[in-house]
Design a protein that fits this description.
Layout (H helix, E strand, L loop, with lengths): L1 H16 L3 H6 L2 H8 L1 H8 L5 H4 L8 H15 L6 H16 L4
Helix pairs in contact: 3-7, 6-7
């Protein structure tokens, strides 16, 4: 019963934020980000790749720009690219972890 409540709560949250439960279950955005983005970002900053997200003069200033930036990186840097669902999931993950636009 507790698991069902958890699934329903997660589904509701995802529906409100624009992500389908099927997408969220199928995509581990943190793992996808770490596997695909961290190495390049670390090279760009000479160490901690998360500095790109937290620097004072960052390139991303709202959710629309974040989605566009993740799409650009996924298209240019990730072999085979990412699906729209993966782009949305990673954008949502980055917003929750660093940008906090939706708060």
């Amino acid at each position: 019963m507790k698991k069902i409540s958890s699934v329903l709560a997660t589904s509701l949250i995802l529906a409100i934020t624009g992500f389908s439960p099927i997408t969220a279950q199928a995509i581990d955005a943190e793992t996808l980000h770490n596997a695909s983005c961290t190495e390049c970002h670390s090279r760009m900053t000479g160490g901690d790749g998360s500095l790109l997200y937290t620097r004072e003069k960052r390139l991303v200033n709202n959710q629309t720009e974040l989605l566009a930036r993740v799409n650009r990186c996924a298209t240019l840097s990730v072999e085979g690219g990412w699906s729209d669902a993966e782009i949305k999931a990673v954008s949502h993950y980055l917003d929750e972890q660093f940008y906090l636009f939706s708060k």
